[in-house]
Each structure stands twice: as structure tokens, then as C-alpha cells.
Amino acid sequence: MTVVKTSMRNFFAHKGRMALSAVAVLLSVAFVCGTLVFTDTMNTTFDKLFAVTSSDVTVKPKDAKAEDTPQNGVPEALPTSALEQVRKAEGVKSAEGAVSSMNVTVVDRDNDNVGATSGAPTIAGNWTKNDLRSMEITTGHAPRGPTEVMVDADTADKHDLKLGDELRTIAQTGDFKAEIVGIASFTVTNPGAAVLYFDTATAQRELLGETGKFTQFNVTAADGVSDARLKRNVAEALDGTYKVQTAKENADENRKDVGEFMNVIKYAMLGFAGIAFLVGIFLIINTFSMLVAQRTREIGLMRAIGSSRRQVNRSVLVEALLLGIVGSVLGVAAGVGIAVGLMKLMSAAGMNLSTDDLTIKTATPVIGLVLGIVVTVLAAYLPARRAGKVSPMAALRDAGTPADGKAGWIRGLIGLVLTGAGAAALLTAAAADKASEGSLMLGAGIVLSLIGFVVIGPLLAGFVVRVISAVLLRAFGPVGRLAERNALRNPRRTGATGAALMIGLALVACLSVVGSSMVASATSELDKTVGADFIVQGNQRIVPQAEKAMQDTPGLEHVTRYKMLDATLTSPDGKTDDDGITAADPTYAQDVRRATTEGELSAAYGPDAMSVGTDYAEKHDVHVGDTISVAFEGGETAELKVAAITDDDVAIDQGARYISIETMRKYLPADSVPPNTIMFAQAEDGQAEQAYAALKKSLDAYPQYQVADQTDYKQELKDQIGQLLNMVYGLLALAIIVAILGVVNTLALSVVERTREIGLMRAIGLSRRQLRRMIRMESVVIALFGALLGLGLGMGWGATAQKLLALEGLNVLDIPWPTIIGVFIGSAFVGLFAALVPAFRAGRMNVLNAIATE
After folding, report:
1. What does residue 542 show for φ and ψ, rounded to 5 degrees?
2. CA-to-CA distance for 249 and 228, rounded, in angstroms?
């Protein structure tokens, strides 16, 4: 009980010093809990939607999957005759046919896309009784003819749509216009989809290409008939021809697809939270190490009056426990706030999430509390153990905590071994012949080198801080030398403080190098291999009407079609793979200059000919002249002769197998031919600018497609990677904030530790301004020390990762020096910011009181 009272007294006596450590725990726990609450809420939203919209039994095409779109872009369909069979099955109360397609784009009169922009789908279909489970018509009426459409209220509000407005729907089967005659509101939370309803005949004709077909049947059970029994009866009536699911099975299938995506988000965010926890550990270790050092005499008195090592140890751990509890409880509450904030942010981006569905599982606060408390107590263990080793006589002489020179050498040796092992692993990864093997060594190298740098940090601090000081601080005379001395006074403390910042900046540098190298490699590859003037692609496969508009554009020498086909290939050695094949026009050999190791690519566009990549050729011992069996999905099996083997040392179309459009048409029925994935165009000589403008004008009616020349394409690629990196940097910002708190805490406690020294310096003539400058310089040096280690380490990781990417065709290593230099300079400002409060407090000290401090 005495131990607890002592711990409570010390905790509240140093509450100001504990606050920053508590904030670090709070932020880390909040990120974890916020992630869990946010992802659980999203899962709840989808679960409710799927549960409500699933009929008692659903009938779909045999191989239909929620995430699949057939290669021809038209949804798989069921005949009306099958619907009549379902209606006659025992236990069926009612059955209706539904039409639904997500392969559509919808634009308004101004040709602006009114579909979902948040990654959620745009869904077009017919209005059915089953839709009344999740929707209600709030304005107007349901569509009654071929020129009428009803939209969901969220889409109408977002794009300012009202009754009487005209919408154009672009589907694989053609374009059609309709006037808004109704607006329906979701009775459950809409996670962001844009939904349009037509009458059944119009939906069948315009979305499926013919009437009399449906994409699924919604079956309702008669009173007293279970879903399982109804499923058996319907399956028997259909002789097992189609996929029959109960409401639960249908909802589970949909939930699985969403769940996989949500897991990626959840574990990625938890990974960044883990980084923040790791950085927080350094802050907590530093805080308790300094508090123990400042209470050396107090600990000695406790030992002198009978306290055992165990009691002293336990006293420090109880303080850590209190810190962990306070920080974790506040973190759990803050986590809920973060989740709500993320929901609001997602709603602003187009994904509507209601706080009514806010889901806080029992496990979430438990995980937050346990994680925060355990991490805090473990981080405080070493300082607590060190406190227990303080002997009464040494403490009463104010000798401080025991300094173990042997332990320092052992630590240095372990650090050198770990760093060397990490460097060896990175070199092995860089020399790997296969990316899969090298990635394992890269991971090991990153972990070992990071731990090695953390362990060896105190040794590095002595050298690196002197170098930084020689460059930056010597110009400030005695004040600069004092700042250098203070930073070197306790290398272990400086090393731990710098290591916290090092971790976040190492990841920033690594990702910057990888991202910049990817852009540079892709740009170089484009310059080297892409001969086409223009590239057209979008978030929907290129519909025939857009293809025709492109082909009719004046000023183009040629237009190249590019289609990806589902097919199973059987090589001469009898082995099969289902990675598919690519069909293109012969002009593709001009648009993308692929080097070949055998034969010529142009020959692969001859009748019954094809090409393969070098990896495939080596794996199956294939040479020019060999025959490969190609079974086209939805078509026939062809025996195609290998006319070329293309070099796979590229980033574009690596591993692609090519055939001509004509060969495809020979073995694939017209209704199974897929739309173009991408298209290329070459301008006539001297007509590049005019052709570019004409092509953009031709495709104005199809805003889902982007027309890009090579400059546009490179910029788009750079922007995409830049957006991804910015998102990652945003997540890493939490770890960097915690690291900044560590610098602040270290300086604040250091000022308290040096109170008497500061008083003496002020007494012999050091001005307040000079004192504040000294503390700011000390902070800048510590921040730059961490930045220098982090950036150096991160660039090493990034360079190694690029060597692995080179195996996938990304051959250019590009160090983004502006980013690296900007981060380094930014670290100096971080140091200045971190020193503001400690320097201000130091400057306000009363000189006499400071000198009199024990």
C-alpha cells in the first residue's frame, strides 16, 4: 500500500512531465481504437444493407460472383423460362426477375458524370418489389416507360438533380436517354452507391441487349417454409442449372467481398498505429529514465529507511501503470472521436456512413486499454530496473543511477552485429534473382538494421552530433558549444530521442525513393517503348460507341484496339495456366516497341499465330515454331504457333501473350468478344496537336475516358503515385508527432534536471536570450541527428527495394533529393518548435531560486 501511495504522490507531483507521455499513449491507442471502430462501423453498414436487400432465396447464373464482370461487359443473364420454373416450385409465394448492371456510366445534360466517385459502384437496373426492402419513393413515381428513370436521393442531392432532368446512360450495349420521374430514398444507410431504376423492359433491352432475360431471381417463401427448404425446392425445379442461395448465403458472399477490402484498410492502418506505438516506447523510456535520474537522492533515502530494490522497482512500474491507464482511457474515447471524424470525411468524399450505425465492440476498448497499459509498463521496465539498482550510499552522494561501462560496450557490440546483419541482408536482397526471395531478405534487412541503429544510437550520437555541431553550431560561439555539450552529455538519452524521429523519417525516405523510382522507371519505359501519340483508357472498358467515335476522328494515322481475353493455355510440356491472352491490332507492334529474343512481334499478329514472354518460354521450354493450345472462355480451342518471344525485362505488359484481333474473332463468338481495355492512336505526320484536340472533342460525350498524350500519361502516373504517398505520409504523421512530443519531453525534463546549472550560468552572465538559444540549438541538433540517421537508413532501404523492382522492369533508381533535403530542413524546424516551451520556461527561471535548487 505504501508503494502505491508513493507512486501516486510521484505521479501527481510530476503530472506536467507525465502529460506528454500520456499524450503519446493517447494518440497511439486512439489510432488503434479509431481504426477498429471505423472498420467495424463500415462492416455493420454493409451487413445491414446486404441483410435487408437479400430475398429469401436468390437465383443467379451458375458461375456468377459479386465482384465479377463477364469479359464482354454484359452481365450474365437467366431466361424468363427459368423464372416460370421457379414460380412453380413448392413453397414459393412469389418470384420476380431483377436486372442489374454495374458496368455503366451516367451523365447529365452538361455531360458531367453523376455516378459514384468514392469507389462505390454505379448500379442500373429495374425497379422491383424487392427494392422496397431498402428504398422508398419519396418524390414522383417509379419508371413506366422507355424514357423514364428514377434515381436515389443521395445522388440527386449530390448532383442537384430534380424531376424533369435528363440523364444519359452509357452501357456496353449502347447509349440511351431518360427523364427523371422519381426519386427514391434509402431506408438503410447507403454506403455511397449511385442507383438508377428503369422499367423492366427498358432495363433488359438497354443493359442486357435483349428482352426476356434477368440477372437474378428474387424468391419469397410461403408462410411456414424455411429458406433452406425453399432453396432445396427451387434447386430441384431448376435441376441444378443455376446458383441458388438463401438470404444468409447471399449476404455472406457479398459480405466476404467487402470484408476482404476492409481487412486491407484495417491492417494497413493498424500497422501505422504500431509504428506510433514503437515511437512512443522511446518517449516513455526517456521520460522514466530522466525521472529516475532526477529522483536519485529520493530513491537513496527510500533504500536507506528500508525499501527493497523490488519495492523501488514496483514504485516506478506503478507510476507507469497509472500513466498507461490514464493515456489508454483517454485514447479509447479519442478513438471513437477519430472514427466519427473519418465517417464524416468519407461522407464528404461520397461514401455515406451514418453515426446511427456506429459500432463499438466490447473487444475494441479492451484491446485499446490492454495495449496501451502493457506497452507503457514494458517501456518503463528498464528505467524501473535501473532505479532498483541504485545503492543507498551512492544515491545519498547524488551519484546518480549506476553507469555500467561494460553494459555500454556490450550494447555497442550488439548494435554493430545487428547493423552488420541488417546490411548483409539488404545486400543479399539487392543481389537476388527473384523478387519473392529478395523481398524476404529485404524485410529481414529492414528490421535488423532498424533495431541495430536503435541499439547503436548512443555510440552514433557522439560522432554524428559533433559533425552536425561543427557545421551548424560553431558559428554561435560559446552558446553553440554549450548546446553541443548538452546534447552529448547523455548519449543514451540523445540516441533514444533521435531514434523516435528516425523511425518515421526512415519510412518516409524509403517510400519516397521507391515512389520516385517507380515514376522515373515508368517514364523511362514509356520513352523507350511507347510509340503511340495518344492513349485512351478509363474506369469502364471502352464501349463500342466510344471506340467508333475514336476511329472516326480526323487526323489519326491509325487506331489500335487492345482486348484482354480469358483463356487457358496449355504449353507443349502439357502444363496449363489461366492467366489469359491479349488480342490487339497489328499496329500495336508500332505503338509499343517490345524487344524480342526470338522472332518478330509483327509476326505474332498473323493468322493462328501468337507470342509469349521470356519467363513463360523459359519455364515451359517454348521456342518459335512451337504450338500452344489456347482454350478461349466462351469460344473454341485453338492451336496457335509461337511466332515471337518478347523480352519480359519491361514494366509495360510484362508477361503478355499477344494474338491478332482477327485470330480472336476466328475462335470467339461475336457476343463473347470483350470491349477494349485500352486504345492507342497515332497522329498523321505534322498533325499531332490538331489530332489531340480532335480526339478529345470526339470523346467529349464519354467523360469516363481520359485522352492522354505521353506527357499527360506521365503526369497522371506521377500524380497517382504522389496521392498514394501523401496518404501514407499522412498516416506516418502520427508517429512523427509522437516523436516531436518525445523531443519536447526530453528537453523539458532536461531543463528541470539542469535547473541549478542554468541558475549558475545565468549568474555568471548568460542572458535569457542566450539561454533560450542554447536550448533551441540543442533541440535542433537532436532533431537533425534523428533525421540524418532516418533519411540515411530509409534511402538504403529504398535503394534495395528498387533493386527488387528492377526484376519487374522498373530499372531506374531515382533519389528524390528535393524531398530528402526538404525533410532534413523541416526536421530543423521541428527541433525549433519542440524547444519553444522548454526554452521559454528556462528563460523564466528565477536565478537565485535556481541556484538554491538541490
Report:
1. -70, 115
2. 10
- Answer yes or no: is pLDDT of 14 > 60: no
Tell me what pLDDT residue 402 has. 46
Report yes or no: 569 and 581 within 8 Å, Cβ to Cβ.
yes
State pLDDT tens for residues 308-324. Answer: 677 777 777 787 888 88
Q: Count of H helices and E strands in the chain?
A: 26, 26
Q: What are phi and psi of 653, to 5 degrees?
A: 60, 35
| Predicted local distance difference test score (pLDDT) of residue 771 | 87
pLDDT digits (tens, 9 = 90+) for 58-81: 999 887 655 556 677 788 889 999
Averaged pLDDT, 356-376: 89
Within 54-148, where are the H helices? Answer: 80-87
pLDDT band at 399 (very low <50, low <70, confident <90, very high): very low
| Residue 150 DSSP one-character state | E
pLDDT value at position 263?
81
- 764 C-beta neighbours (distance < 10 Å), count: 6
Q: What nine digits make up the cell of 854?
A: 538541490
Count CB neighbours of 757 within 10 A: 14
Residue 788 dihedral angles phi and psi, to the nearest 5°: -65, -45
* Residues 852, 854: Cα–Cα separation, whole Å: 6
Residue 174 and residue 212 in contact, taking contact as beta carbons nearer than 8 Å: no
Q: Among the listed ranges 361-375, 477-491, 598-612, 745-759, which one has the minimum average pLDDT value? A: 745-759
Q: Label the pairing between strands 534-538 and 705-709.
A: antiparallel
Are 613 and 770 in contact by the 8 Å Cβ rule? The answer is no
Please give the full DSSP string across 769-803, using - where no structure is assigned. HHHHHHHHHHHHHHHHHHHHHHHHHHHHHHHHHHH
Q: Which of 443, 681, 645 is nearest to 542 (CA)?
A: 681
Which grid cell sits at 301? 533515502
Q: First vs last Cα of the chain: how many Å apart?
A: 29
Q: What is the DSSP string of 383-449?
A: HHHHHHT--HHHHHTT--S---HHHHHHHHHHHHHHHHHHHHHHHHHHT-SSHHHHHHHHHHHHHHH
For position 142, what pLDDT does the model report? 95
Taking alpha carbons only, the member of 126, 196, 109 closest to residue 156 is 196
Give, as one character, the DSSP assignment of residue 129.
Answer: G
Rounded Cα gap, residues 459 and 407, in angstroms:
13
- Plot region of 398 (φ>0 → left; ψ -120 to 50 → alpha; else → beta): left
Name, in order, each residue with C-beta under 8 angstroms of 736's C-beta and a sequence gap of 6 or more: 501, 504, 505, 830
With 70 as the cut, is the pLDDT of residue 297 above it?
Answer: no
Burial of 209 (0-12, 13-18, 19+ CB in 10 A): middle
Q: pTM of the entire structure?
A: 0.80
Quick check: 149 and 198 in contact, CB under 8 A? Answer: yes
Rounded-to-integer distance, Cα 785 and Cα 788, Å: 5
Residue 137 CB contacts under 8 Å (≥ 6 apart), including other chains = 150, 182, 183, 184
Could you give the CA distance from residue 467 to residue 394 in angstroms, rounded to a whole number?
35
pLDDT of residue 509: 92
- pLDDT for the residue numbered 316: 76
Cβ contact 113:105 at 8 Å: yes
C-alpha cell at 284: 516513455
**Number of C-alpha atoms within 13 angstroms, CB side, residue 750?**
28
Range 122-143 average pLDDT:
93
The label of the residue with cell 523510456 reads 285
- For the cut 50, the answer to whether the pLDDT of residue 1 exceeds it is no
Tracing cell 456510366 back to the chain, one arrives at 105
Chain centre to alpha carbon of residue 150: 35
DSSP bridge pairs for 178 = 167
Q: Give which of 201, 356, 274 is closest to 735, Cα–Cα.
A: 274
| 404, pLDDT greater than 50 | no
- List Cβ neighbours of 668 (8 Å cut-off, separation of 6 or more): 565, 632, 634, 635, 636
* Mean pLDDT comparison of 358-372, 518-532, 741-755, highest-scoring range: 358-372
Kindly report the number of other CB atoms within 10 A of residue 72's CB atom: 20
